[in-house]
Amino acid sequence: MLRGRDGSVWVASESGLHRFLQGTWVENGTEEGLPSAAVRELYEDQRGGIWAATTRGISLYDKRCGL
Q1: 16 with 66: CB under 8 angstroms?
Q2: Which of 49, 30, 50, 52 lies closest to 41, judged by CA?
Q3: Residue 62's pLDDT is what?
Q4: Model-level pTM?
């Protein structure tokens, strides 16, 4: 679980990446570009980018269109 600088809450799970922002949950999985649905780790870099480490590689969340 990670709290982003923008106040969003990110949750890594076996079924994808889940984000809670402004009272709404948004789910991201392989359909949105994750290499695997199983997310093991989350990290926010110095620029505010959210990185998700999955069982098949890493992804950087793109605020414009998802992962």
Answers
A1: no
A2: 52
A3: 75
A4: 0.86
